[in-house]
Amino acid sequence: MTMPTRNARGLSTALAEAPDHALGRVVAMLDSLHDRSEVDILLDGIRPRLRRLRPQRPVRLARLLCLPLEGVLVNPAAWKQSPLLVPRHAIRPITAAVAVALGDLVPELEVLAAGGNLSDEALVQALGQRLWPAAGRASLPSLPEGWLAAGLPEEAAAPTMALCTAVWRHAPALWAAAYPASREGAGEGEMRAALAPLVAEGRPALLAGLALILRDAARPGVAVSVAGTLMPAVQKIAEQELAAALSRDGALVTAATSPGEMAGAAQRLVRRMEGLEATDNPISRDQRRQLAATLRRDVGAACYALYARALAEGLLAEATRIAAGARASDAEVAALERMARDLRRLEVAGRRFAAEAAFDRTLAETVGRLLPLASRPGGLARVEVARLVEMLAGPAAALPLVEE
User: What integer is the mean pLDDT of 305-313?
Assistant: First the structure.
């Protein structure tokens, strides 16, 4: 598939602007294309949203091979020839080489994967345990067929293939540490067990394994500290990758356009910042404290700004409109309650960063404006207003309506 530049640019813009409910359908259409040589490049700009939304995407050999490498895969435009990175336009020739080397195993795995999708964690784990080590042990060409045709320099082939095979050999343990069954996330022992074998593979492999864990780990700071004790030479770049990962998380929060979306992104960042400053390295500790302070300031301010705006322009405006009219429908009441639940989630998450006094003040003002709506005839019933107040501020705030 060779897409004209104008069409590719238009599709990339459409993907970036697509609402959450439509994004999965667009990605599914792209996933159905047989030739994916440019699809993964087009998806590069929305990968953070794909990780958050996790739309159902079919299991393909190329995608399964790429999963352990996600931390080091980069768009061709951002790729600098380096043994630490794998350009996305190398996926096609690498996948073809692996398919030839593994022979009958590939069609066998394709049968097992038929109808499955990447949201099925058990299926991905089961297929990966068979595919990744086999690909890591396979005799692959130093220059895969189609490498030069993809516009890749010949001298980049050998280090790229070496990095891929090194990660694949240890991918099952890495994947288990990056996406553990426990909701609490992998502990220090699990991270150490996953990263330690990569030390023997060399610095690029260790950093690639760490980059995978940093993408979604509940406590990425622990992973970086573990990597630094295993190989002190990686400490500096590992700290930089940690800061970049958490800064991307912060950007997802500040870019959110709805209270529900922002609440989810903020709650994720809260979990990932847990224990961030717990490190024995004084230099790293100071850097992390500065990073945490910046994130708390910027993310807290963004959470409060959207919270205040959504309360005033969304819930309060809509509740006031409904209260002034005929009896509210069930659908209207349900919509108000959804707003209230999302706002409560955003408030709880936002308080973990900053601006507690501002949240307190705005919440008190909101309750003060909601309570009188219960005395208006028609519109919202007293119990419905009480329910909204309870969702926003807790049962004590709704008590005056219940007592009356």
Answer: 96
